[in-house]
């Protein structure tokens, strides 16, 4: 499959949806006060519905999960490499305190739900790539709220148990529910399946519209204010994805290597700014990191596929 030809129109469609959200927020059609409700629907209802639907569609069970051990271990290792890249970048840029924490935290994980999942389904769905979505979701959720959360809050405020956030995460719970249904051969009525599918499919459009709205409420003038964010972007979304792809292809399938590359290249997760505000970190730096990496990833992801196809 020519992934470059497949990804260009998809990224163009993604950009249009982001622009719709951006325009809706700038013109006042969507108010800032509505953003928590939209994100709540997406993260607590739509994405879990999509996850359950994919597990049921692919008949992924606890047993089949164990068959992807190399992919799981590779993804876990990748997150630690991303963390190391963030720490190295913060030292190179001489960042201190809360700003250094945000820089390192933004290096781990990315916008998996709203960007990576639609791309996996578009590029690799016909080749059985959808089976990796729930598997990678488990690793992403776990590492973001353990390793990533630790980097965000390192040395700041009281220590919290990150496992509570993982266990109570709606996506994590939906994965467990879906795996139980398939593993124990529990049938689900068609009317429920179709409803789950309809709700889950709203993620593709509304996830990107929400992303555009988020950009509309942020200060775009700050994009080039912090040179260290450009270092973050270069490390996380360009250098490391290429390194990970070319190393992992020696022991993983081509599709698995490209999925790891996509996950690594994804822009900083939108919850980064929420974490920064909640723990009195550098909120402006976090918001700028989200805006900058999101906008630039629209260009860098097609470039990555172009480079690996040479």
UniProtKB/TrEMBL annotation:
Main localization (coarse): membrane
Pfam families, per database record: Mem_trans
Protein name: Predicted permeases
Topology term for the membrane: Multi-pass membrane protein
Subcellular location(s) of the protein: Cell membrane
BP terms from Gene Ontology: transmembrane transport
PANTHER family: AUXIN EFFLUX CARRIER FAMILY PROTEIN, TRANSPORTER AUXIN EFFLUX CARRIER EC FAMILY
Family the UniProt entry places it in: Belongs to the auxin efflux carrier (TC 2.A.69) family.
Transmembrane segments: 37-56, 68-88, 100-124, 131-154, 166-184, 191-217, 229-247, 285-308
Keywords: Cell membrane, Membrane, Transmembrane, Transmembrane helix, Transport
CC terms in the record's Gene Ontology section: plasma membrane
């Amino acid at each position: 499959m020519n992934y470059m030809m497949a990804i260009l129109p998809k990224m163009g469609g993604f950009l249009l949806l982001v622009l719709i959200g951006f325009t809706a927020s700038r013109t006042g059609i969507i108010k800032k006060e509505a953003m928590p409700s939209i994100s709540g629907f997406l993260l607590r209802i739509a994405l879990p519905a999509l996850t359950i639907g994919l597990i049921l569609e692919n008949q992924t069970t606890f047993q089949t999960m164990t068959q992807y051990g190399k992919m799981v271990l590779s993804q876990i290792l990748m997150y630690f490499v991303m963390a190391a890249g963030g720490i190295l970048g913060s030292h190179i840029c001489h960042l201190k305190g809360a700003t250094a924490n945000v820089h390192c935290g933004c290096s781990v994980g990315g916008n998996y739900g709203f960007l990576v999942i639609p791309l996996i389904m578009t590029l690799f769905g016909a080749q059985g790539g959808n089976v990796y979505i729930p598997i990678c979701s488990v690793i992403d959720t776990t590492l973001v709220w353990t390793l990533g959360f630790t980097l965000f809050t390192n040395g700041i405020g009281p220590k919290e148990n990150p496992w509570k956030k993982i266990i109570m995460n709606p996506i994590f719970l939906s994965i467990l529910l879906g795996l139980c249904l398939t593993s124990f051969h529990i049938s689900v009525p068609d009317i429920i399946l179709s409803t789950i599918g309809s709700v889950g499919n709203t993620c593709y459009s509304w996830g990107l519209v929400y992303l555009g709205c988020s950009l509309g409420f942020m200060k775009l003038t700050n994009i080039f204010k912090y040179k260290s964010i450009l270092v973050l972007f270069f490390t996380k979304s360009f250098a490391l994805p290429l390194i990970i792809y070319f190393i992992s292809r020696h022991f993983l399938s081509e599709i698995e290597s490209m999925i790891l590359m996509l996950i690594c290249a994804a822009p900083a997760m939108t919850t980064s700014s929420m974490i920064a505000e909640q723990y009195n970190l550098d909120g402006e730096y976090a918001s700028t990191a989200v805006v900058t990496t999101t906008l630039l990833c629209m260009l860098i992801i097609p470039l990555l596929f172009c480079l690996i196809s040479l």
